Amino acid sequence: MNLESIETPYYLCDEKLLEKNLKILDDVQKRSGAKIIVALKGFAMFSTFPLVAQYLYGCTASGLYEARLAKEEFCKYNENAEVHTYSVAFRENEIEEIAKVSNHIVFNSPNQFNKFVLKVKEINPKIHISLRVNPEYSSAPSDIYNPCGVYSRLGTSLSNIDENMFQYLDGLNFHALCEENTDALEAVLSVFEEKFSKYFKNLKYINFGGGHHITKKGYDIDRLIWIIKEFIKKYDVNVYLEPGEAVGWETGYLVSTVLDVFENGMNIAILDTSAEAHMPDTLAMPYRADVRGAGVSGEKKYTYRLGGNTCLAGDIMGDYSFDKPLTVGKRIIFEDQIHYTFVKNTTFNGIKLPSLVLKKLDGSVELVKEFGYEDYRNRLS
Length: 381
Ligand SMILES: *Cc1c(COP(=O)(O)O)cnc(C)c1O
Hints:
- It is a single chain.
- By secondary structure, the protein is an alpha/beta fold.
- It has 2 domains: 137 residues, Beta Barrel (Lyase, Ornithine Decarboxylase, Chain A, domain 1), CATH 2.40.37.10; 234 residues, TIM Barrel (Alpha-Beta Barrel).
- Helix content is 27%, strand content 22%.
- The protein contains 11 helices and 18 strands.
- The strands form 2 sheets. Strands 1, 11, 12, 13, 14, 15, 16, 17 and 18 form a 9-stranded mixed beta sheet that branches. Strands 2-10-9-8-7-6-5-4-3 form a 9-stranded parallel beta sheet.
- The structure holds pyridoxal-5'-phosphate.
- Pyridoxal-5'-phosphate binds next to helix 8.
């Protein structure tokens, strides 16, 4: 199958690039002694799990459906893989199934802990129990992605700790980073240790959460390894990391086609994709996606505002310049659109969801999934 024949829009995940990330993460595991699990929230393309499961120890899930996906689609490629399930609040009618498919369960609050801990242990005596704590310190780049801001609902802060919980706890989790380097991790760790290390004595592990931008160029991998090794030495516990973004980072792109070009004060090109529906974080974070072969506004001869094919006025990818004029039918490629894209995309405005394409290690291309009218309709009544 060749790429020209695949109808746009589609996301393409390139296994070679994914394997490059997995090898970096595996190097961290091997040299530091930490275990790394993938956060399905950020990367869940399970047609890649035969590859991912060769490197990572399991998955972190945010609730029943992600936990089931981990159990059904990841563990079959690695029978020792671990499913860690955290939820801000577990539901009574789901806890039994969650306990059955999870190796670790992470509670968000003492209330939730007290409500479910005995039941969960009864259903799955081997399950590990953890509590997410909130160090109340973070340098996350924007409020919407800061789990430790004021009035945060994510994790138990020191003042809410009930010491009785520790007779059951195997570990503690924190998650305070977002796309950050080791300086941010060290800052969080020092606050976390200051507040919570008095409780480490009988714990088996500490989970450092996600947000470690390990596979980004310039990330200080040697420093991360040093931090983890020191931590393990100091407290005699295992360490987990659970990145999502770092797994899917720069592993593929979104391909679209120009449907129309016109001028209204400036040149405008309409694409068969949508920032709002298919590249959600470009508007939520927000950030500007790179377009292959394009420059910033005015850098090259022909500048266009690239817009989505929905009625939302703000459905705009940004202004980009090109060496040649854009024409209808031209393909436009948005770089790095795998993590946090199709896990979050929508059919807003009835727009077609992009297909999912996998470029395999051997170079062959597989159209994994196409979406149609039924995918739109079935959610609406
Ligand atoms: C979002 C999240 C992650 C993954 O974060 P990334 O920024 O994708 O690495 C890990 N753990 C928890 C608890 C999360 O909420």
